[in-house]
Design a protein that fits this description.
The protein has about 800 residues and is α+β, with helices and mostly antiparallel strands. It is about 30% helix and about 20% strand. The protein has 20 helices and 27 strands. The two termini are about 45 Å apart. Bound molecules: pterin cytosine dinucleotide. Keywords: Molybdenum, Oxidoreductase.
Length: about 800
């Protein structure tokens, strides 16, 4: 941890809080990870998709005879085949009042609605044969006018994407008190306005999506191996809504998954197709996306057009916030799509500030583009970007330091629990120490002097950008999300199974696809049971093994899955103590575990090891009267509230006024995710998130033309952040435990992404203030920045 100021806990903890190397890395680094595409079954066939080249078209006749004549082609499937078999529409898992839910067939039927929508599927002996045969299908696609931008889809006379959604409106949603907000605006000294676009992103996990289905006629049972962040949600949606089969007839396995960033939460058409084809052809069927397919089929992220107004007093006090957002949802509603621009966005607009009133309106809009759903941070980066941008703009207009305006408005530590005007009740927080620490780490006073000197001489344009972010994660109390429209519970499961040899197997509903749970969850077990980490196996990603669980998204695994594990371990430990007490002929309350051994308090000799207890639990030869044999416990943990991590990120950039190139010079991230289980993993999460957030601010952009064609469909046009774009990130921590979960932990998996886009954007605009530029939409490509500087110079 070269640049970290993390101090390991001074308590006698052996595993928690330690930067233990990731136990999963040897297999990933030596190529022995086991991903969906690595799995091959006897007699396996391959699916290849004929995808629409048009964003909107009517499907006429489909002539598959030439494709079917190719040796090795076993079938060509169309939307009609699925409809005839009664295969259901792909559902959404979140409902809002008056939500329009147009049908979403896995293979399009009647019309295609985005470039990439599936028109037909070839199933063949090899992938090459299937892909070649796709080109031989003759489809009469009659192009229709299309629309790709949210605001254009709302314009009078716009093309209608679905007849079920007149005017392309999927929903209109609002939060906060409009009248109270208007009243506070009327009292304010001034109003700062900002119109901004939060552009669309492609998730780009390293492993493209893949699915392999097997059908066993004997038991009428399916197995699906798929790249999923939450196999139980996949099983529930596929069984109950799409295939109409009992859930226990479908086993979903998500083995090693090479990153998801949210894009592998959802139920995708290809999963339905391979399951359907496997039953029809009585052979296993596999599909693996190519990178070019991923660009047009993985659910995309963000895509907001917003107008915001911030009411202020002249001393910088915030009086109210008004927001109007158009959220482009793409062509269909996917699993979490309605929740992302509403409950995961509107509720976060309060940030860390004391707002007397907020009112936000969001219009969800259908367009002829790839569907939009959760992408790392999901709604919260959009809220943070808007809020932190307008706060920095307000500071510039008021002539206040960007850190000072924030400090003056922070909710104070003695004000928790804090009810915001946008529904959430923050359980804890202490924002100033994080700001102060970050200011110290970045060497703020000296930096501002250097900035002023550079501007004065015209030699250097430095920008310093703040983001004092907050996020709500650890999704979260089932009762609350149920009231908000989720068709899902938000608890998590854990089973702790102690073997006769004292080895421990944990079955968790959380899913690790890069976050290192096999290490951090094993640290929790080793600490609690006082056993070596090598004796612990963490099993996840298989509905055939684990009890029901809701999976990994919304940075919920440590706070919810980890807490379920801690509670299950508590039950195991209580039973183990009772068994040990029986063996030691003592009362359970007189027995303690020291250095792994159970001993009578004050008697160091003659204890029972964890192995002795585990073995005796199974042999049960000499067992407490009435106690069940075995040592296995389960806990379903449903938290009382979300958790609210926060922090201060400061980005320092230098803008080359001659070329428009933005260079990241320094980045300080002070995060508070409560007590840290593994600082190396937590900091790795922060590093990755910051790279992604920087990517959005400076490099990445999903560009559609007016006809809905994706113009940035390869890495030649879609620039991802690379090592050379980054700097050595300086990471710091403050520790404010969550008061309501047994570990006190808060999520860290999305913090970097949520915070960094705003910090980098504020830094770039801060540098551009030297030219009289007060806002510029991302991404800050050299051309865009250069043009903005040229235009500003001309108009001066
Ligand atoms: N952790 C810790 N101490 C804490 C909090 C967390 O040591 N106080 C550890 C956890 O034990 C876990 C990791 O940090 O190993 C992340 O924990 P958490 O914040 O609970 O997030 P999740 O494990 O639920 O991961 C989800 C989150 C999300 S929502 C996205 S999107 C994302 C992310 O994690 N996608 C990722 N990080 C990713 N990292 C990789 N490599 N790949 C992805 O697809």
């Amino acid at each position: 941890l070269p640049d970290s100021n993390y101090k390991e806990p001074t308590s006698p903890q052996k595993f928690m809080g330690k930067a233990i190397k990731r136990v999963e890395d040897p297999r990933f680094l030596t190529g022995t990870g086991h991903y969906t595409d690595d799995i091959n079954l006897h007699g396996q066939l391959h699916a290849a998709m004929l995808r629409s080249p048009y964003a909107h078209a009517k499907i006429g006749a489909i002539d598959a005879s030439a494709a079917l004549a190719v040796k090795g082609v076993r079938a060509v499937l169309t939307g009609q085949d699925l409809a005839d078999a009664g295969v259901g529409s792909i559902p959404t898992g979140w409902l809002l009042p008056d939500l329009k839910v147009p049908p979403h067939p896995a293979i399009a039927h009647g019309e295609v609605n985005y470039v990439g929508d599936i028109v037909a599927v070839v199933i063949a002996d090899t992938r090459a044969i299937a892909e070649d045969a796709v080109a031989l299908i003759d489809v009469d696609l009659q192009p229709l006018p299309a629309v790709s931008l949210g605001s254009q889809a709302l314009a009078d006379g716009a093309v209608e994407v679905h007849p079920e959604a007149p005017g392309n409106v999927a929903f209109q949603w609002q939060i906060g008190d409009k009248d109270a907000t208007d009243a506070h605006f009327a009292q304010a000294d001034r109003v700062v306005t900002l119109k901004l676009r939060n552009h669309r992103l492609v998730p780009n996990a390293i492993e493209p999506r893949a699915s392999l289905a097997q059908y066993q006629a004997a038991g009428d049972e399916y197995t699906l191996w798929t790249t999923s962040q939450n196999p139980h949600i996949h099983r529930l949606l596929l069984a109950a809504f799409v295939l109409g089969i009992p859930e226990n007839k479908l086993r979903v396995i998500s083995p090693d998954v090479g990153g998801g960033f949210g894009s592998k939460i959802f139920q995708y058409p290809e999963e339905v197709i391979v399951l359907f084809a496997a039953k029809r052809l009585k052979r296993p069927v596999k599909w693996s996306a190519r990178r070019s397919e991923a660009f047009v089929t993985d659910m995309q992220g963000r895509d907001h057009e917003s107008e915001a107004e911030l009411a202020l007093m002249n001393d910088g006090r915030m009086m109210g916030l008004r927001v109007k957002t158009i959220a482009n949802l793409g062509a269909y509603l996917t699993t979490f799509a309605p929740a992302v621009p509403t409950y995961l966005y509107g509720t976060l607009l309060n940030g860390v500030y004391k707002f007397p009133a907020i009112h936000a309106e969001v219009t969800g809009v259908f367009t002829n583009t790839v569907p939009v759903d959760a992408y790392r941070g999901a709604g919260r980066p959009e809220a943070t970007y808007l809020l932190e941008r307008i706060v920095s703009k307000a500071a510039a207009e008021l002539g206040l330091d960007a850190s000072e305006i924030r400090r003056r408005n922070f909710i104070q530590p003695d004000e928790f629990p804090y009810q915001t005007p946008v529904a959430l009740v923050y359980d804890s927080g202490n924002y100033e120490p994080a700001l102060d620490k970050a200011l110290g780490m970045v060497n703020y006073t000296q930096l501002r002097q250097e900035q002023a000197e550079g501007r004065r001489t015209g030699q250097k344009y430095i920008g310093i950008g703040f983001s004092t972010y907050l996020e709500a994660c650890g999704l979260a109390p089932s009762a609350l999300v149920g009231q908000l429209g989720a068709q899902a519970g938000q608890w998590e499961s854990a089973v702790v199974r102690v073997m006769p040899t004292g080895k421990v197997e944990v079955l968790t509903g959380s899913h690790s696809h890069g976050q290192g749970h096999e290490t951090t969850f094993a640290q929790i077990v080793a600490e609690e049971l006082q056993i070596p980490m090598e004796d612990v196996s963490i099993i996840h990603g298989d509905t055939g093994k684990m009890p029901f669980g809701w999976g990994t998204y919304g940075s919920r695994s440590a706070a919810v899955g980890g807490s379920a594990l801690k509670m299950a371990l508590g039950k195991v430990k209580a039973k183990a103590t009772k068994i040990a007490a029986h063996l030691l002929e003592a009362a359970p309350e007189d027995v303690e575990q020291v250095d792994g051994s159970f001993r009578v308090k004050g008697v160091p000799e003659g204890g029972k090891s964890f192995f002795d207890v585990a073995l005796m639990a199974h042999l049960a030869h000499n067992f407490p009267e009435g106690m069940e044999p075995g040592l296995e416990e389960q806990y379903m943990y449903d938290p009382k509230n979300f958790v609210y991590p926060f922090g201060t990120h400061i980005a320092v950039v230098e803008v080359d006024a001659d070329t428009g190139k933005v260079k990241l010079r320094q980045y300080v991230a002070v995060d508070d995710c409560g007590p840290i289980i593994n600082p190396m993993i937590a900091e790795g999460q922060v590093h990755g998130g910051i790279a992604q957030g920087y990517g959005q601010a400076v490099l990445e952009e999903t560009v559609y033309d007016e006809d809905g064609n994706l113009l940035s469909g390869t890495f030649m046009e879609y620039a991802m952040p690379r090592a050379e774009d980054m700097v050595q990130i300086q990471v710091g921590h403050t520790v404010t435990p969550s008061p309501h979960n047994p570990l006190g932990v808060k999520g860290i998996g999305e913090a970097g992404t949520i915070s960094s886009t705003a910090a980098v954007a504020n830094a770039v605009v801060d540098a551009l203030e030297a030219f009289g530029i007060h806002h510029l939409d991302m991404p800050y490509t050299p051309e865009k920045v250069w043009r903005a500087i040229q235009d500003a110079r001309k108009s001066q």
